[in-house]
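The aim of this short unit is practical: by the end, you should be able to scan a pair of folded records and say something sensible about each. We start with the first protein, listed as its amino acid sequence and then its structure tokens.
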Amino acid sequence: MKTFNSARGVICMNPVTSFLVFAVGVGALAAGYLGHNPYLAIALLMVAGLVAASLKMANVWQKFVILRMGKLQSVKGAGLFAIIPILDSVVAVIDGRVQTTAFNAEQALTKDTVPVNVDAIIFWHVHDAEKAALAITNYREAIDRVAQTSLREMIGSSMLAALLSDRKEADEQLKVEIGQKTAPWGISVSSVEIRDVAIPEALQNAMSRQAQAEREKQARVILGSAEAAIARKFVEAAAVYAGHPWALQLRAMNIIYETTKERGATILMPSSMVDSLNPSAATLALALAGNDALANNSARVNIDTSARKGALGPAGNGALEQDGLPQTAPAG
């Protein structure tokens, strides 16, 4: 396989040509030493040199740019082809595959005068081998320079916030600008991707504090909205409980139950609170106390009546009747 090294300007021989040259060379040696025919050996050596100089082979992704006596003769693609030695020359072998070039811009000022370091990568390919070989000296170096210049121009016309948030828009802008500059060289830009945008550390800290403050502000707004909603629900619940006191007591008892159902939980409550949560028991206790008082009063009245009867005797019945106390008829 013959490949062209643009840095050294040499072409390496491809395997097919190498094999043919080797075979013809062996034949020339055999004719010279074994056949004792020097003329045939010289002729075969000349044929080997001619094959080595004229037979070329290009891979499917390669384009050979051929000049004949200084003028463009043709552009050869994949496969074997021959050129005329001395008259024709291969000046460039263009690789048509997609290639990448990394580039960056250091301490470039944005539109709001913030220094940033930006790293990016460009994907490109040669669509016209003739222009890439004849319109520019070194298209690889030219792409790198154009990409760096376009990147700095884009940074200078963009705000820092837009550069950090709208990466896709910046990528598309770079792709269009670089593509317009490289199109005359037969080069198409597939895409441009910004890999990193580095800003000063002090600015990073300031932006971090600003973002934290914004998050705290949003959290407090959400908390305030939640408290307002809860307050409205409490107002609605208070209106319901105002008309149904038993519901409030049941709710209080349920809260106590939910609190104490966990193991190890101890709650101290005043007895008055317990009594307020159990009105039926309080009413029963008051009723029992009232009954005991009535019974005691009745017993005391009976004791006083009996004592007075014993002291007055039969004559005292009239007095008792005058006093309005009941009396019983004597037995017999």
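Turning to the second protein, read its sequence before its tokens, just as you did above.
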Amino acid sequence: MKQFSTMKYAEGLRGQGIKGLREFEIRNAEGEQRKPKFLPTLCGVGVPAVESVFLAAEQRFFSAFRIPLSAFEPTRFAAWAMIFFLTAVNLSAQRLNISDVNSQSPNEPGFDLRLALGGTVNSDMSVAQRDNRDYPQTNINPLFATSVPFSGTVSYESIGFNPGFRFDFAPGYRLNQWINFEFETGCIYNTVESYTITGNGTFTGVGGNPNLNGTMKLDAQGYLLQVPLMVNVEFSYPIGDGWRPFIGAGGGGMFQKLTVSTISGTINYQGDFNQSNFMGAWEAFLGCGYQVAPGFDVSIAYRVDGVLSPDFGGYTMQNFFTQAAEFEMNWRF
């Protein structure tokens, strides 16, 4: 009988895309002994195969549009969060096939784990101060560019974001069926959509119309990555038939990394902004869960996070908010 090397074959899938994925499934179907036992599976496919297909599709997409792959490195957070989340769904589904699930009742104290994935919408990030000085300011460089002089007065600057995604990993401890504590981390990712500036004056060294008279909204490229580190408390109330509405809040900190590169529209220039911080933050949430099986719940939740006056290298922003709608899975141990 031929020997089958899963890792070697998965490496060989790079560059083969969906065709390679089909070959992987067929070859696994030839015999149970050839199916990798040491890897979690995602819809019957080993995670290395999923990685190979993802990398192949990623390379083809960016090369087709002549976009440098390095410029979109952060988008891999989304793909890997999805892979991790769906792998957990797959493993939980396998667990639910076992009739003798051994887990504690939600009425008893014990540890639990929450995984969640959802979409996010950010508020605009408005600049409150630059170098500890309030607006309006005169003869300052436009936001995100140290090499683009501006002669005149700037009274307002802000950043707009596209909708993004959020992934949560939150181990916790429940005191009883009503109160649960958790430590929450994960990642929140949104791309930059726009840069808005209000004032009067003239830009130097830009393409397009260099004159600013009033408000100018420009397209922008970049991203905001946030990593929450929160301690939350959740209050829930079982209402029968497995349903459990809940509400909660928490506090802690938020790591933020903001980059902005190309600015385009009425004027065009290359941004050079790449700053990070760690600021105080809070979170509030509500939702409703349903017990699918002993020790396993699913839920839908709405979450809002606030960061208190985030500061990025001398740019002090107004209080910043992120809203999210999530699908969650909860295990009790």
